[in-house]
Amino acid sequence: MQTTELARSLLTRFNGLEQSRQPWIGSWQELTEYMLPRKDSFAATGASGVTRGQTGDERIFDSTPMHALEMLASSLGGLLTNPAMPWFDIKTRDPKMGDDKAVRTFLQQARERIAMMFNAEDSGFQTNVHELYLDIALLGTAVMYVEADPQTVVRFSTRPLGEVYVAESARGAVDTVYRRYSITARQAAQEWGASLADETKKKAEDKPDEKIEILHAVFPRTDRDPFGIGAANFPFGSIYMEMANENILEESGYLEMPYLVPRWAKAAGETYGRGPGQTALSDTRVLNAMARTALMAAEKMSDPPLMVPDDGFLGAVRSGPGGLSYYRAGSSDRIEPLPVRVDLGATENMMAQRRESIRRIFLGDQLAPEGPAVTATEAVIRQSEKMRVLGPVLGRLQTEFLSPLIMRVFNIMLRAGALPSFPEGLAPNDIEVRYNSPVSRAQKQYEAQGLSQTLQYLSPLMANGDPFGIMDNFETDRMARHVAEMFGTPSDYMKPEPDVAASRTEKSKTQSTMQTTAMMAQGAAIAKTLSEAHTDRPNVLTDLWQMLTNAGAVQSDAEAEAETETANIEDGSLIPTPTAPIAEPPQEVIDAG
Questions:
Q1: 542 located within any domain
Q2: With contact defined as beta carbons under 8 Å apart, do 158 and 132 qualify?
Q3: For the chain, percent helix, then strand, then coil, each to nearest 5?
Q4: For residue 479, what pLDDT band results from cuts at 50, 70 and 90?
Q5: What is the pLDDT of the chain when averaged over all its residues?
Q6: CB atoms < 10 A from the CB of 396, how many?
Q7: Which one-letter DSSP state was computed for residue 398?
Q8: 73/124 Cα distance (integer angstroms)
Q9: Which residues, other chains included, contact 269 with Cβ-Cβ below 8 Å and sequence gap of 6+?
Q10: Which residue, 126, 169, 161, is CA-closest to 141?
Q11: 125, 118 in Cβ contact below 8 A?
């Protein structure tokens, strides 16, 4: 396609996207004016639609919506992408492959490097992701641009919704993004140099700070060769163009979609999302109107209107502090305040109800910090309830933002060589990079709590060494590994199963060797004691030895005699005879007989 035809086709598609987005502009502008004026990128003034140097808070009389919005964005950051918690994981698709020590070391090192990339100040992720949460909570749609950078490897940038125009695929996923933004002529010359039009080059020299409009179009390629080489065959095409003179600046492509466009919630047939801000807009209008009226009533009560007669006073009436008003002597006319009857208490109660409604809409009751200390079981139950309420929203954010974000960053770092060297036998296709959802984390904690309750209930039956063999019903190794997995224990902390079996075998051999060594040491000690004892004179040891010898001799004689008697009785040849002579009867018995 020729350059002129390509530029015209881009403008035609852009005009269609701009027309389809037009109905949303009014509500987006009103939302930003009431809740976050600095996010107003939809005003008609300025080359980029942004009114610079103005506060834009003329409609705001109560800051409750702004505070509730900030709290929701901060809560989402702490819940979804907390830098202090592992919110993504890298594993092998084949669990058996993950038992290899070299593979486990690689996975842990890769996870640490990716986490460092997200938390690095140069990449700007933590700053820009907070802006994204503000956009998606207020406007229902947010845009983040993730691009490769020669200095920081990956660079993140949350773009204002006012400069982005999107379209969906047949599956409902955003696959086309047109972005119209403004930069200075000097910045354009630094970025594209010789590709600029002659008019823009002259501006860069004469008026370097003058703004020019750039159109960046990213769309899926339909005429590419999947097995071809080069940017022309990448899945997504990328074209930069000057809007004023339809000059194509750059034509390239992306292997993944660089623009991530999450939506809070989306109605059927709509492309852009709807967030809590639109739900709270009616309450916000009423609250600001009531706050304005209450301020006017309070002002009237503190400085009421005055009733002044049409004559009798000399000069103007001065109602300020220390003001003097002169009237004619003898006149009965006086200055009196106009009665103002306002129930500010009732007004404040009505405003408090609106404030509480706005906080609930922004999930203040669901994401508020826990109150007094509770038990571990109750904390798990509360966390599970929060996850059930936020489940649908978090599911869409995970699908449209968090999971594609992890894959995009991993692939950029892989192509840039920023990951550790792959161990032998492991390929990039063998690795699965996924987001750890807080819903799944809460579910795992609930499972761990169930395991703890089961063992606690059975503990009385397992006292004194488990006499009933209760633990024979459990796979203790599987339980230990499952609990470690539920709480996100790093993989390199756990030994592979073959190493565990080998360690147990070695431990059994070591215990047996230690027992044998102890017995040998005990025998050597006894032998040493016997060798050092004096046997030429009586002592405790010689008495003990004589006693043992005599006992052995007596036992031998008794055993031999018992065997002889048993044999005589069995063959009937002899009748056992007493071993001692029969005593003769006394003399008195003989005389009596």
A1: yes
A2: yes
A3: 55, 15, 30
A4: confident
A5: 80
A6: 17
A7: I
A8: 17
A9: none
A10: 161
A11: yes
Supply the range of the domain harboring residue 538. Answer: 533-575
Give residue 113's pLDDT band: very low, low, confident or very high (50, 70, 90): very high
β strands within 303-359, DSSP E = 306-307, 313-314, 326-327, 336-337
CB 418 within 8 A of CB 153: yes
Q: What are phi and psi of 149, to 5 degrees?
A: -135, 135
How many domains would you assign to the chain? 1
Q: Can you read off the two tokens belonging to residue 314?
A: 């000399």
pLDDT digit string (tens) for 415-454?
999 999 999 888 888 898 888 877 666 666 666 677 777 8
Separation of alpha carbons 407 and 403, rounded Å = 6
- 589: in domain: no
Q: Which residue has the tokens 């964005």?
A: 73
Residue 354, SS3 per DSSP: helix
* Both tokens assigned to 565: 């008697």
Interhelix angle 101-119/403-416, nearest 10 degrees: 110
Residue 539 lies in a domain: yes
Decide if 537 is inside a domain. yes
Distances (CA, A) of 274 to 65, 79, 161: 16, 21, 13
* Pairing label, strands 174-184, 164-168: antiparallel
